[in-house]
Amino acid sequence: MLKLWILILSTISALTILNGSLNGVVELVYPAVFLFGFFARYGPFVASTIMQANAIEGLENLPEPEHGSFIHGAWLYVKDKEEWAMQVTAVSFIFGLILGRLRVTACVFL
After folding, report:
1. Model pLDDT for residues 33-84, shown as the tens digit of each residue
2. CB 50 within 8 A of CB 44
């Protein structure tokens, strides 16, 4: 499931960059910053979660922690990888979207 999400994101990003390259270099700013924002959030979050899941023994036996707790991501990774992948991708997507939009707004006003 995780590979499917990355494949979809990569395809959309490649098509957006292709469209931007056909219409002008300025249109490449948003997708480039979006991708940077996405992977800047996605990479460390995935690495952190996998390290936590491997370091804490008996994690699968714990009751469900609160959603905002430090251990929730690792617990969800152990219990349901598909749900974990959807949540990580959604949060990273929103982070990249906001970062990309702020960068484009700054480019317009500068």
Report:
1. 777 888 888 888 888 888 999 998 888 888 888 887 888 889 999 999 888 8
2. no
User: Six-digit token pair at 40?
Assistant: 């800047």
Closest by CA to 71, choosing from 88, 48, 92, 89, is 48
The mean of the pLDDT values for the chain is: 78
CA–CA distances in Å: residue 72 to residues 67, 75, 106: 6, 5, 35
Q: Do residues 52 and 71 make contact, with C-beta atoms less than 8 angstroms apart?
A: yes
Q: Which token pair is 85?
A: 């992948």
Question: Which CA distances in Å does 57 have to 43, 44, 60, 65, 90?
Answer: 23, 21, 8, 15, 28
